[in-house]
């Protein structure tokens, strides 16, 4: 069976139109993004009105204040101030769909979550189709959807990061730049580690890519030289990794703060255990690629004189994929606990204010309370976007890396297609007068087959394994630093 680009484009358009129609009909009524926020379990703190603050402060008088000044016949009143140690208790209210309309970044949050759900459904349907029909040379439509999800997630994180650069007074810009340089150095250090310790398969994949590209160039009559050197490849990969690390800096720092607050709120042991597992999930993912700790121990367990492998390498790769997906599902399940811990910051700020001396204006107090709920979707995006990146990078790793979902996967042939036989047979059968369009299709088919032989599963397996590991490593590094900062450096 030959690669048919027309068939691929038609199927992609059909699936896209069907899923767009489904999203248009279903999302207004059933939206996972809205359900995560508006199912009744999240409660936000309402800011007090000025009249309520007047009553609490004992200022019931209305009209002109004694401190009002008159300029050019106009009365200019100073803003009302109240003591900071006022006995204030905020009222709570369940988050409703009407409340979400005023939230900053709510459209971006809803689009990312709902589109991720649609892309995941397309991926599952496509995997079922490929499992039963077993097409050998047909391009996988779900890859386009996974790449779109990753591009949307990176775009959202980039947009959030640019806001920190616009802040003049705070040190957010310096934090992003510092962590960006830190992750660049870290990426360069990781990329020089041998595969005896970190078994991404990146070296093997790049070598296979270089050899395939040189063979392709030789067939085209060009100079047989690798299109890119290994040093250049790793340098640009390290730059890309530093950008990802900078984008994931504040999501990791925020996760650490929400984790501590959620632990203080949790009363059941099972909830606390799940919160700890959720926080350590990126560490578990990182250790899955540390060869002496996981793969070497499983493949060659110390069981006396005879060392019997507990499973095959293919089974280990499959279990690794399933474990990452299960940890992503756990993180999604614990999302509400973390968001509620964030919303409780409003009351926490008020309690902290009561310990201070002096006075505060009613406007500043209202802003301090309202700001927490206003940025709820920003925090939700910082929680969801890394999760989306991990999930769909793993899905790409499974498909492009030629892995299997079965615990005992069958051996999958990765032999390249003989393009010369394909092209010769098709050209010989084409009439000279009728086959102009068919010749064009055939040429595109041969080109796609050649690209498939250059960009092999070995290359994608190494590259996507490294990117999956890197996202988890960045999340754990930033959240661990945030945990240390909020526990030991922040003055309570």
From TrEMBL:
Top-level taxon of the source organism: Eukaryota
One GO CC annotation: membrane
InterPro entries in alphabetical order: Transmembrane_161A/B (IPR019395)
GO biological process: one example: regulation of heart rate
KW Transmembrane (keyword) present: yes
The keyword Secreted is annotated on this UniProt entry: no
Localization terms from the record: Membrane
Keywords: Glycoprotein, Membrane, Transmembrane, Transmembrane helix
Principal subcellular localisation of the protein: membrane
Recorded topology in the membrane: Multi-pass membrane protein
Any Pfam family hit: Tmemb_161AB
Transmembrane segments: 6-27, 111-130, 142-162, 174-193, 235-253, 274-294, 372-391, 458-485
Similarity section: Belongs to the TMEM161 family.
Protein name per the record: Transmembrane protein 161B
Protein species of origin: Callithrix jacchus (White-tufted-ear marmoset)
Gene for this chain: TMEM161B
């Amino acid at each position: 069976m030959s690669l048919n680009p027309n068939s691929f484009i038609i199927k992609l358009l059909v699936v896209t139109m069907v899923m767009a129609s489904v999203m248009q009909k279903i999302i207004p009524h059933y939206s996972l993004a809205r359900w995560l926020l508006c199912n009744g379990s999240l409660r936000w703190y309402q800011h007090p009105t000025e009249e309520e603050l007047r009553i609490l402060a004992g200022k019931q008088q209305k009209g002109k204040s004694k401190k009002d000044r008159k300029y050019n016949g106009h009365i200019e009143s100073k803003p009302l101030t109240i003591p900071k140690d006022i006995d204030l208790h905020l009222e709570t209210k369940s988050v409703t769909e009407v409340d979400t309309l005023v939230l900053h970044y709510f459209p971006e949050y809803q689009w990312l979550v709902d589109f991720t759900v649609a892309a995941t459904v397309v991926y599952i349907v496509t995997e079922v189709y490929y499992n039963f029909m077993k097409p050998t040379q047909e391009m996988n439509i779900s890859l386009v959807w996974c790449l779109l999800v990753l591009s949307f997630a990176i775009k959202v994180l980039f947009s959030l990061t640019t806001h920190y650069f616009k802040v003049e007074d705070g040190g957010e810009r310096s934090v992003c730049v510092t962590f960006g340089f830190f992750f660049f150095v870290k990426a360069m250090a990781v990329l020089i580690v041998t595969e005896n310790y970190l078994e991404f398969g990146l070296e093997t994949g790049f070598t296979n890519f270089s050899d395939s590209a040189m063979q392709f160039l030789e067939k085209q009559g060009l100079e047989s030289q690798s299109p890119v050197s290994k040093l250049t490849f790793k340098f640009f990969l390290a730059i890309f990794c530093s950008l990802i690390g900078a984008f994931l800096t504040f999501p990791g720092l925020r996760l650490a703060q929400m984790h501590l607050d959620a632990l203080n709120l949790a009363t059941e042991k099972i909830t606390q255990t799940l919160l700890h597992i959720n926080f350590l999930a990126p560490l578990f993912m990182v250790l899955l690629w540390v060869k002496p700790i996981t793969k070497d121990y499983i493949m060659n367990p110390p069981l006396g004189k005879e060392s019997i492998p507990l499973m095959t390498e293919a089974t280990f790769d499959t279990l690794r994929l399933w474990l990452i997906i299960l940890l992503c599902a756990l993180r999604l399940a614990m999302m509400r606990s973390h968001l509620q811990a964030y919303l409780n910051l409003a009351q926490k700020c008020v309690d902290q204010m009561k310990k201070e001396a002096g006075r505060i204006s009613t406007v500043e107090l209202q802003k301090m309370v309202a700001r927490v709920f206003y940025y709820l979707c920003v925090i939700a995006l910082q929680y969801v976007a890394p999760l989306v990146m991990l999930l769909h990078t793993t899905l790409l790793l499974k498909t492009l890396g030629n892995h299997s979902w079965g615990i005992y996967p069958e051996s999958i042939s990765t032999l390249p297609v003989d393009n010369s036989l394909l092209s010769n047979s098709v050209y010989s059968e084409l009439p000279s007068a009728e086959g102009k369009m068919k010749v064009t299709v055939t040429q595109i088919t041969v080109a796609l087959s050649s690209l498939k032989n250059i960009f092999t599963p070995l290359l994608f397996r190494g590259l996507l394994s490294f990117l999956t590991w890197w996202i988890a490593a960045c999340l754990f590094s930033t959240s661990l630093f945030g945990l240390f900062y909020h526990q030991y450096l922040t003055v309570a």
